[in-house]
Amino acid sequence: MKAKPTTVDDFIGNAKLWQKELVLLRNIIDKTGLKECIKWGGPVYTYQNKNILGMAAFNNYVGIWFFNGALLEDPLKVLANAQEGKTVAMRQWRFTSSKEIDEKSLLLYINEAIENQRNGIEIKPERKKEFTVPKLLTHCFKEDKAFATAFKSLSGFKQREYSEYIESAKREETKLQRLEKIKPMVLSGVGLNDKYR
């Protein structure tokens, strides 16, 4: 397994596809003065410590995503919601060739995103406060006090993640498999998605 990249040079160097396009996108983004860093295993560009955009390479396309892309005017109608119904603010711009990457258009979008952030225009994520602990978990708590104590010591956010993970399974068998998977994580005080943060 390859080590996670620690620099954008590593990310581009490790990319099996789209290296030319990634370099081109990076060179354009560099003209905006955004700060470059690695988050979630990929390049992210920030303004005053706020995420503006990121780059990614997939099998079928290379692209950038705007963290508050839903607020952009999108005159070229190029921005897509990668997860309709789940993603509220984020929007992607996908490219399947370097010929599709137009510097002038890209800078127009990036500069608008920077200006929105500068003016405090952003979509704040809706905070989910209340959640129900699934019956399967509460039953398990009665049988395993150490598990119950470890679960209750987790932050509300992590408790909600685990609860939703169990509850989202359609089949009882899958719920039980998920429960067995999360037990050692909960007992270790680890959140469900901590390795991605």
Task: Give the spatial strand order of the biggest sheet.
Answer: 1-2-3-4-5
Tell me the name of the CATH class of the largest domain.
Answer: Alpha Beta
The assigned CATH architecture of the largest domain is Alpha-Beta Complex
N- to C-terminal distance: 19 Å
Order of helices and strands: HHEEEEEHHHHH
Radius of gyration, taken over Cα atoms and rounded to an integer in Å = 20 Å
The count of β-strands is 5
Largest sheet descriptor: 5 strands, antiparallel
Residues in β-strands, percent: 5-15%
- What is the CATH topology classification name of the largest domain? Aspartate Aminotransferase, domain 1
Q: Oligomeric form of this entry? A: single chain
Principal-axes geometry comes out as elongated
Mean pLDDT: 92
